Amino acid sequence: MLWIALVDRTGSGLWAAVSVLYFTYVTGLSVTQVGTLAAVSGAIGIAGAPLGGRIADRLPLTRVLISLQILRALASLALLTTDNYALLLAFSAAGSFGDRAANVLTKLYATRVSGPDRVRYQAVTRTVANAGWALGGLTAAAALTIGTTTAYQWLLTGDALSFVAAALLTVRCAEPPSPARTIATSKDPAPTTRPASPWRDRGYLAYVATETVLFLDDAVFKVGLPLWIAHSDQAPHGLAPLLMVVNNLMVVALQVPLARFGATTAAARSLLLPLSAAFALGGVAMALSATGGALTATLFLTTSAVAFTVAEMLHATVSWELSVALAPGTAQGAYLGVHGLAQSAQRSIGPLAVTAAIATGPLGWTAFGATIAVTCVFQHRLVRDQLSRTALSVPPVTVSEH
After folding, report:
1. How far apart are the first and last CA of the chain?
2. CA 118 to CA 256: how far, in whole Å?
3. CA pair distance 154, 176, nearest whole angstrom
4. In whole angstroms, how far apart are CA 398 and each of 126, 188, 189, 328, 384?
5. For residues 224 and 400, what is the distance between their CA atoms, to the nearest angstrom?
6. What is the pTM assigned to this prediction?
7. Which of 78, 102, 247, 343 has the greatest CB tally within 10 Å of its CB?
8. Does residue 115 come out as left (phi exceeding 0), alpha (psi in the -120 to 50 range) or beta?
9. Is 104:52 a contact under the CB 8 Å cutoff?
């Protein structure tokens, strides 16, 4: 699965770096059309997380994951066949759906095979995935120096082939044990109660809602920092890509060491308090970057990037552990699928939140960091109440052998 993460993210890095350019220069879409395509396909992709998790509670996980990788490969290759806007929208939506569902199933697989070591596994996986993103991005940057239509098409083909490779590697993975599925004969009585549903678990839904806010660090690096620097009279415009490199290198170097501080559910919950401080510091540093000259702006923007990167790493550890700990074992897929909605929803909400902070100025960035910090404290209390509840008693989903 670690090899799969490396291959998958390397291919995704190839496409993420050039997708907007491909739709602009190769298929001839306008800025409005590209934005609409990204928004609509992302909205449809949101459904992939809960549906993928629910299906994985009922069917062999590896088979579902292989099917999703094939769907992603076909969707990528299909983009090469047309410049029709409606078809491009449909193919992009199919790829987005497969991407979100595959992310949840990969997490579910790790949860089932790693047991008590799941936090360390998550840290190693994120490290490998970030290395893949960097490798794919560097390859795409080199290819863009050519700047031809063929170069764009080969990058998209490489993305599709990475999904094919991931599917072939998944074939070699054994099916992990699942507490949600048991084999029953015709003599066994039918289950009398329904499996646990995250949609009826108000506490878990509230937790997922807070997670949507905590995932906003992603929008800071993808939208917030570049736009803030681009519209700054003091900050060097070349600083934005350098801060992205800082983010990537920090995750590769520190994600695994930091994971040991959240190795248990109680430890992960405790990390929410330093996580709150990291988010608050990041927002204040962004605000202070507008108060001086070029040197001051560079120092505070770097401080902010470091703070938000620390927040990203801490939240990755906390989110992985708590999302699993709060889910009943017999419905892990369904619960983790609903948890995946938080990150999917953030992709739509995040850009709006950071652009609002930019439009408001320094005060907006202070409020941005403070809002996430307060949400961390609220989640700290919410999770305590959830973990103190009596464990759900539900029967496993039964799969007939006939």
Report:
1. 32
2. 12
3. 35
4. 34, 10, 10, 16, 32
5. 51
6. 0.76
7. 102
8. left
9. yes
**For residues 136 and 17, is the Cβ–Cβ distance under 8 A?**
yes
Q: What is the pLDDT of residue 249?
A: 84
Q: Which of 5-9, 31-35, 140-144, 304-308 has the highest average model confidence (pLDDT)?
A: 304-308
> Is 332 exposed, middle or buried (CB count within 10 Å of its CB: 0-12, 13-18, 19+)?
buried
Summarised one tens digit per residue, pLDDT across range 180-213 is: 554 444 555 555 556 678 888 999 999 999 999 9
Amino acid at 130: N
User: Closest Cα to residue 327, out of 174, 111, 77, 152?
Assistant: 111
Q: What is the 3-state secondary structure (H, E, C) of the chain?
A: CHHHHHHHHHHHHHHHCCHHHHHHHHCCCCHHHHHHHHHHHHHHHCCHHHHHHHHHCCCCHHHHHHHHHHHHHHHHHHHCCCCCHHHHHHHHHHHHHHHHHHHHHHHHHHHHHHHHHHHHHHHHHHHHHHHHHHHHHHHHHHHHCCCCHHHHHHHHHHHHHHHHHHHHHHHCCCCCCCCCEEEECCCCCCCCCCCCCHHHCHHHHHHHHHHHHHCCHHHHHHHHHHHHHHCCCCCCCCHHHHHHHHHHHHHHHHHHHHHHHHCCHHHHHHCHHHHHHHHHHHHHHHHHCCCCCHHHHHHHHHHHHHHHHHHHHHHHHHHHHHHHHCCCHHHHHHHHHHHHHHHHHHHHHHHHHHHHHHHHCHHHHHHHHHHHHHHHHHHHHHHHHHHCCCCCCCCCEEEECC
